[in-house]
Amino acid sequence: EAQVTQNPRYLITVTGKKLTVTCSQNMNHEYMSWYRQDPGLGLRQIYYSMNVEVTDKGDVPEGYKVSRKEKRNFPLILESPSPNQTSLYFCASSFGDNYGYTFGSGTRLTVV
Amino acid sequence: AQSVTQLDSQVPVFEEAPVELRCNYSSSVSVYLFWYVQYPNQGLQLLLKYLSGSTLVKGINGFEAEFNKSQTSFHLRKPSVHISDTAEYFCAVILDRGSTLGRLYFGRGTQLTVWP
Fold first, then answer.
1. Residue A58's closest chain B neighbor by CA?
2. In this predicted structure, what is the pLDDT of residue B87?
């Protein structure tokens, strides 16, 4: 089944403890992207990647890192999480801008 | 500045009534436009997209949208809604296709609630 898989689905962590949210797609998509969803704000792009080793900042990149060493994987790294990073995170992938994105099921992160 | 404006945060409607969810974007150049739906506790699913050509776009689940370049709008419509259409709907846009690859901007969402 064609899909974008995020792990974990739920995560509670403490301030300052490094964490990684994994994202993997099995559709051979070149484009991958991370979004955070907050009530009343819609989805805001954190980072995106147009191919292996090609990444760029979105609208809210502060406090996040990404890497794209393989085409299928695009992990999101929070080096020192803070409570304002409590949010619902989505990974998405696409063949290109005119195809629309396929989204993962989301990761609900709580930082206390 | 908001690139995509969804004019209604909540739209309540009775079952079998028509519905329109409004979306305006801010761009004077060529765009790609999308509508996504998010059911509770799920990810986003593509409903329909406008790339070029006919301004009336048909999508899944009986939804359609009309691209209006002069009014910079892309409103979503359905002639008769069902309870199962209750969800949050997001309008999204790529503002300058070809020069802003990968930059997909979302509106803040419209919660559609269908009452029996």
1. B103
2. 97
